[in-house]
Amino acid sequence: MIVENCTFRRDPRVRREAKALHSAGHQVSVVCPQEKQRPWYERIDGVAVYRFPHFQAGISAWGYFLEYIYANLAIAVLSLVVLVREKFDVIHVANAPDTLVLTMIPYKAVGKRIIYDQHDLCPELYRTRFPRFNSRLLRLLLWLERQSYALADHVIVTNESYKQTAITRGQIAESKITVVRNGPDLESLSVQDVDAELRSRSKNIIVYTGVIGFQDGLDCLCRILHRLRYDLGRNDFLCVVIGDGDALPRVKALARELWLGENVLFTGWIDDSERYLRYINTADICVSPEPLSDYNDRSTFVKVMEYMAAGKPIVGFELAETRASAQHSALYVSDNDEKEFAVQVVRLMDDPVLRS
Hints:
By secondary structure, the protein is an alpha/beta fold. 43% of the residues lie in helices and 18% in strands.
């Protein structure tokens, strides 16, 4: 299994797929970026994990391009190491980026089978992150996606929207596509306790959890909280932001600019699973602030199912796949209306019966 944009321990989808394969009796190796203070090779729950040094050239489109060139070279080398040490018959490639599948062409030529696990719609993700996008680069991304579909022996997607994209844009036969949805590990949700210290900090605890990328709406969340605090006059809340990502420095700066210091707590990643669950259990309201875009509308956010598994009410923007996941567990806000989002948060703050 190959993943470029997340470490093994912090990619719940890859981690659960590897666990499922290992439990089914398969020998599983994972190639992924290296974490701080972790060895380049180790076995985790029977899975062989090979790590390459992480390199980030910046947050511009060309910065990502350079990062992906480096990562493809590093993955090509490590995959040879895995071939010699572990042997393999199937390569399970998780995008982004879609260049990863091209790196596997030599293996395809010698009879290895390729699974393309489409985590992200890269062309839509590029347009969302970079509104002033380069049309040539967009065409390149669409071409890479087509090659990824064409090279794969089988395609795995996260939801029905991605499946339709594979059928229409990728011209993939439905028989070659399997939907494997994201979701929380129910076995890990045994902790029911709340965090007493966090509970004592405010009457209303609002929680966001997940990756903090430029497409994930944390800037929207800051503006929503500003409206909640200053337009609607509510100071009786603490919003806990659990997670990390390349947009975090800008989000923190925006929170300071909007005078939200006392109302926002940035925790970073919480690797302690019991503490993480206590924070989720302590929440009164959970938020999914990803704004409407072609990318977000078709993407499934695992945070939504984690909120639901903990029995928490959700406020989110009106997105097709968010509604498909949450259904009646959420209040939905249309047209990326940040003020109305704040109004719906207040509605839940003041109505415990509705929250329940």
